Amino acid sequence: MNRQATVEKMKQMRLGGMSALYHRSITENILSDYTADEFIALLIDTEWEERQNNKIKNLTRGAGFKLSVSSKDIDYGTKRNLDKNMFERLLSLLFLKQHENIIITGATGVGKSHLAQVLGHVSCQYKNRVLYYNSSVLMDKIRLAKLEGSYMKLIKNIQRCDLLIIDDFGLQPFDTISRQAFMEIIEDRHQRVSTIITSQVPVSGWHDLIGEATIADAILDRLVHSSHRIELEGESLRKNKKLIG
What's the pLDDT tens digit per position in 22-44? Predict the structure, then answer.
């Protein structure tokens, strides 16, 4: 049996984990340590793990995060009104299963985006499809899609994700196009999938921010009432780190 040819066939069949392990078994002569059944099981387990890891990497890359963050990075020590028990419950991702939303508000630099993206990264680890957008970038993308005729494709792509993160909501005023698009996005996701929104503007100011009372009422009714609320306080963490440095 030509073992090297077998390795090449595995590669051509895109069995990367399996081919790497089989090649190592040849070069390091570890075949004798296993029965045939054990080695086959090991090959399959290795390929399975590699495919799962690749899926997580692709989901994380496709989400478009600004930050590479982990739940280990969360600062619970600084006083900023972050309830550790509550946030640890959110990290269990039960909110995703129950199709609930999360709203994180607070002044600039208190860690809103960081917390949202931690939840996004954890969601990817559990193989959920996540999309992250800065609010202004999303609205610009929507306007461009309208002009190019790719609006429905963009909306469908957003509709398919398990978790949508909209960061820095409210920094750019709504116009008719962005207001209607935001309504469509929120209405479609209501009680079906989850959305996380971060904003420097308190929720009490969102109605005026969105404009057009009827649409604002409809958006807030679908978004706010099914949301976990985190209202961060205190000084900018960036400022504190600068002082420490």
Answer: 788 878 877 777 788 888 888 88
The crossing angle, in degrees rounded to 10, of helices 112-125 and 84-91 is 30
Q: How many domains does the chain have?
A: 2
CATH number at residue 77: 3.40.50.300
Q: Which residues are CB-contacts of 82 (< 8 A; sequence separation ≥ 6)? A: 74, 76, 111, 115, 230, 232
Range of the domain at 201: 70-244
For 76-120, the pLDDT digits (tens) are 988 999 999 999 999 999 999 999 999 999 999 999 999 999 999
Parallel, antiparallel or unpaired: strands 130-134 and 163-167: parallel
Q: d(Cα 162, Cα 180) in Å, to the nearest integer?
A: 21
Q: Which two tokens stand for residue 47?
A: 């390929």
Same domain, 161 and 95: yes
pTM of the model: 0.85
